[in-house]
Amino acid sequence: MLQNNENIDYLTGLLPKGAIIVTPLNIKETSPIKVGDLDQDGNLEAVIPYKLSDEYYLMVLKKYNEQWYSVFSIKGKGIGINYLDYVDFEGNGIKDIVVGWQEGAIWSELNIFTWKAYGLKRIVKELNYSILQVFPVANTNRKDFAIWQHDTGEAYKIEVFCKKEDGIFKDKGIYKDYFKMVVRYYEKKVKEMPDAAFYWYYLGDAQIKAGENEAALKSIKKGINLNREYPSKEAFLILKDRVQRAQGKRNIIGYVSSELYPASVRTIEGIKWGYINNTGQLVIKPDFQSSMDFQDNGLAIVSKNDNMGVINGDANFVIDPQYDYIEKFREGIAIANNRNGYYAFSDTGKKIFQYKNYIGNFNEGKATFVEIGIDSQWIYGYVDKNGKVVIAAKYEVANNFNNDKAVVKLVKGPYEIIDPKGNTIQSFKYPFVGDISEGLLIFKEKSDGKFGYINEKGGVVIEPKFGSAEPFKNGSAVINLSTDFENKYGLIDKNGSFIIQPIYNNIKLLGEDMVAVGKAIDKNNPPKGSIYALANIKGKIITDFIYYEIDNYNGGIASAYDNSHTFFIDKSGEIISVLPKVKGTGTLTLENGLVKADIDNRISYLDKKGTVLWKQNSDVELNDLYKIQEIKYNPNRNYLVYYPKVLGIKDAKRQRHINEKIASLAQVKKIDPKKQLDYNYFGDFSIEFFNKQLVVLELSGYNYPFGAAHGMPTLIYVHVGLKDGKIYSLEELFKKNSHYVRVLSDIIKKQIEAQGSDSDIWLDEYKGIKRDQPFFISQDVLNIYFYPYEIAPYAAGFPTFHIPFTEIENIIDTKGVFWRSFN
Q1: What is the CATH number of domain 619-727?
Q2: For the chain, what are the domain ranges?
Q3: Fewer beta carbons within 10 angstroms: which end of the chain, N or C?
């Protein structure tokens, strides 16, 4: 690969002392060093893979004025370099750097670096593969790549990607050509092992992608008839469903795009989430309570019926929605949990293993797990990707492995650094030791002492003199000299010298050598927050203190907002005028040519010119007569309320009165736009229930006094009779002289007693309900609730008791207007 007669010895001499050049497994040439004008800027670049102290690196040099300079270096993962190539993906002559870091016998992690004006940008990471293929696309100048991810036996999950600008996307346009080759592979496998259901499954999947639907149905039928535990019958039926949809036998909304973005719709049943494509068209119908971004493996975490699951790009569940929480995929594995325990899933949906108490996320092929010790103490150990215990549970603190090292603390023992086999590399005598960051660890000499930094041998590098300390990033760390509410944040180098003096209310590392430096908005009350200036990693203050927030830099730009607008800034702090500027406060992100605007607790999508492609609807039609309209009230940066307006009531005066009452209950009140509030308030609403002539509106709020341990939530339900233009009270549901207060109080007391000793309710504090007790109606049930601290601790939220109407039908006024409004 050495080109242009460059001297290999000279280039090697630019490596760190002790480094040796390594040859990636895919390279057959005599030299692994690539020299050429990779970014087409007229200057040569050299890419050198090397090994130093059993760790693997990639260095990129650039030649200016006959001199070579290092412009990029990255430390890889694992035990070697599996793949290295320089690929012109888009046919423009610019060759991106493709590297695969070997993590084990089967798995490698793919990184792709693309050239930008400021250098290299990593656009792919944490995408695991077992086999990687880069290939030319017929009748174009482009190249695509395919990843094969090992499942079981010699079966692989296969996906094809193309690169566009700063992202990669499934290239479904070449599925037929590529997957015909995959079909031939699996046809051979099913001949070799006709009783292996997993080969029939992947044959069917490949046949669908190759457009061979009839053949796919036969493969699916064969796989189902084998009646094997894996893949499950449900997995085969999902394949069958894909065939039927491809044949037009099912009605689906839109089509499945390679670029999908979460989008919300307000409905009678509440906020529902689906996905749009890059033109703003809804392509996966809004059927979920929440939806997260699709990851590089083509999967997304969603929630449905109060449980979380994982879907693919066809909106089919790969992991069924039956879990309380699911973590994002890391190293090809997602961790899910429910009341029965913790589970590790592959991205094919295969349940690999489970543990009762806890499984952490994977890093470098290992995850923490927990056994319960004496006095219910959590004791940590480590498992591999098959669930095999590789380091026994014996730690009360266990951090993730990074570069084959992990910081742990033995039960009733010292902090240690251990290797992947659990062997002690270094033991520490200190009462607290943090994780490793760039060779340094945060520590305390005394349990009630201050923080400093030690090296991996335990030697004190920076004396403990800080009230708080953060890990080092790119040679600098944020510290706080103060131990009380008056912050003194500064930025130090690895010698403990101040790059930025410790005089600020907050400092944040933004990446790409940029820093946000914050002064207190109110010097007498620092918890009110900060107003920021932009600085660089050398300590130079670049702008005035004009931002209330600056997000991390990515590709030389960052999202920021002032008192009224959110926008993109460059590294000089200048607003980037060719990108959107949006009214409100929040975050803007560039996503494959779109701008995602998370502004004022609402997500919308714009093109780069600022044209809105998608935003959540503000009106919900209840029926042909009535609708609910969302109104936004945002008089101040710290005060934001979304509240409902009821439309369609015949009596205009009553409609106005109802809406004024709703606005008042939603805390719509006069707020000084220029005043810095002592608190932050956010209010929102949803449609809790609608039937016939009754709509129940939920008004929720959260008031957070700055500096408080937590805020105080509010919850109010408004029962609106649409026909008579009236807001109903609890009393109106019952007959006169029915003693409903006593009856409901007794029922609730019995429910509390039935909960037993595990209940969060303070039975001694329960004195029954009030005449105007907070309540809401749902289908066939009366719900009575209490505010935090009334009868239970704050953590219990709003204790709610559900009373079926059948249990109290003898006291309900079934002839009253309230009851008849929804019956």
Answers
A1: 3.30.565.40
A2: 4-247, 619-727, 733-821
A3: C
